[in-house]
């Protein structure tokens, strides 16, 4: 890109993704380039949109793992291995299902 080329992240109309209020953590703003119907994006604009979409996807995955760390009692924030987070999450879900079966059995026994 030369000095006279417009910056693809600021060219044309843009749409800014606002950070989620409920997450508490500030997310980086993702800016996508949009144009009126019938106008085509340049290659630089397409690339900028692709990068913004990929950053948003990665941030959503990180947010999901952060939520799992908060919910699963055997995980701590220092444990950032995705494999470990998923493994402990599966173990916790199995534990919860077992607890549910026990409670359902107690309820059905109490009703007799």
UniProtKB/TrEMBL annotation:
Q: Which cell locations does it reside in?
A: Nucleus
Q: One Gene Ontology cellular component annotation?
A: nucleus
Does the record carry Magnesium as a key word? no
Protein keywords? DNA-binding, Nucleus, Transcription, Transcription regulation
Transcription recorded as keyword:
yes
Q: Which SMART domains match?
A: HLH
Q: Which residues form the BHLH domain?
A: 45-96
Gene3D superfamilies found in the cross-reference section: Helix-loop-helix DNA-binding domain
UniProt biased composition (Polar residues)? 1-23
Which residue windows does the record flag with biased composition (Basic and acidic residues)?
36-57
InterPro entries associated with the record = bHLH_dom, HLH_DNA-bd_sf, Max-like/E-box_TFs
Q: Compositional bias (Basic residues) at which positions?
A: 26-35
Question: One GO molecular function term?
Answer: RNA polymerase II cis-regulatory region sequence-specific DNA binding
What is this protein's name? Answer: Transcription factor
List the taxonomic lineage: Eukaryota, Fungi, Fungi incertae sedis, Zoopagomycota, Kickxellomycotina
């Amino acid at each position: 890109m030369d000095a006279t080329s417009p910056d693809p992240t600021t060219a044309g109309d843009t749409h800014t993704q606002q950070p989620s209020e409920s997450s508490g953590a500030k997310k980086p703003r993702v800016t996508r380039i949009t144009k009126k119907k019938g106008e085509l994006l340049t290659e630089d604009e397409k690339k900028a949109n692709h990068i913004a979409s990929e950053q948003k996807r990665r941030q959503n995955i990180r947010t999901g793992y952060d939520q799992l760390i908060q919910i699963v009692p055997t995980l701590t924030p220092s444990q950032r291995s995705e494999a470990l987070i998923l493994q402990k999450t599966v173990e916790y879900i199995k534990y919860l299902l077992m607890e549910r079966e026990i409670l359902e059995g107690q309820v059905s026994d109490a009703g007799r």
